What does this fold into?
Amino acid sequence: MNIPTDLKYTESHEWVRREADGTLTVGITDFAQDALGDIVFVELPQVGKALTAGQDAAVVESVKAASDIYAPVAGTVTEVNQATADAPDSINTDAFAAWLFKLKPTDAGAYDALMDADAYGKSTGN
Amino acid sequence: MTLKATPLNSAHRALGAKMVDFGGWDMPVNYGSQIEEHNAVRHDAGMFDVSHMCVVDLEGANARTFLRGLLANNVDKLQVPGKALYSCMLNPEGGVIDDLIVYFFREDWFRLVVNAGTAEKDIAWMRQQNDATNSGLTITGRRDGDKAIALVAVQGPNARAKVWEVLPTAKAASQDMKPFNVVIVPDTAFGEAMVARTGYTGEDGFEIGVPATQVEALWNALVAAGVKPAGLGARDTLRLEAGMNLYGQDMDESVNPLDAGLAWTIDLVSERDFIGKAALQAKGQNAQFLGLILREKGGILRAHQKVIAASGATGEITSGTFSPSMQQAIALARVPMDVAIGDTVHVEIRDKKLAATVVKLPFVRNGKVLAA
It folds into this structure.
């Protein structure tokens, strides 16, 4: 299972990347896409929406099930990836390229409290 | 709880299957891509381990009389040995204990294939009825022990030809066999085989039963013949496209089978009495079982979503998924009696009400999309 070391992770299988401008890019992990199977629908949040940490932000549906995607930290949605919504199976192809949304965090330090690759790997048995 | 395993468990693992807990059974959900497996069945040949289902042999002189009272469909449709029939087995209230296929071999030997999760309940019910009616039958479940039979369903337009490569001695007996028939072939390389032209995908093919000790060799031979292993994920999308009910989802003991699209299997015409008949006659049909195709973007149709008709009357989706053949979200639904084929209804998905078209089932049959 691919778990890039330059990202942070949540227990609910989101990956998070801190960009140079301080925004956070969010997607679902390789582990999550593998567990879901063939992904056929993605619902993205509204740009400008304020989210609390752990609030449901997006939905990813595979052939077999719908899965909520949660905000890893509190913040405001600044951008969504329409390309992923238009080609949901791109998540199966490369879960770390097919990002879902970007978030401007309320607290810049919240990112540092997320799991690193090592901890996430252990939590998923990898 | 330890999961139960079929005799093909290690074969699935060797193929890299993703295994899941399926009603207490450790079963393959897919071997990589569910959609590829689905398409293999629609366009070539795929196969499923269905050994979690249970073969039940009913033996004794009163077998037919017993089944006349036990089953909602009329077993007297089986007059020629080798014929098969789909039927519900009802409780006295008219609820569905299980749906099954009954195969007729001899007047003193009928064989049922019942669902995995209900097998123990079914056998207990049949034994109770056997005692209550003094039918004197021997009722033998054949999923465990020395005489266990394991089942593989090979389905798709090329399924039969590929089976004959592996079971050449079965070809003569099965090539002119009509759908919903069965033959016992005593001398295959995998022992005595039951070869039935039945399945659950809307495609042609065979369901094959062999001694459990032989099934891994049969499975590997079918892989070598180019049959693609398919998991329970593909089995579900295929049966849903084919408009076929799944026990526990589209009907169960709490659902009137007339409301679950099964009226065609319920014999209310003949004089014959059967368990549940009086209750069904009293209840009548109160809903229709039809297909839905989602017309707006916003999600995938799923079980238990609410369906709202133009009149305001409501129904419920019982099975829903993304159809790989149609590239659309589709569902089986119990809808109000005032809904007609071609109507637009609305389905509640999360916080939205999305438009869907009501269509006749099935969606797909023999590789062709029938509803669009």
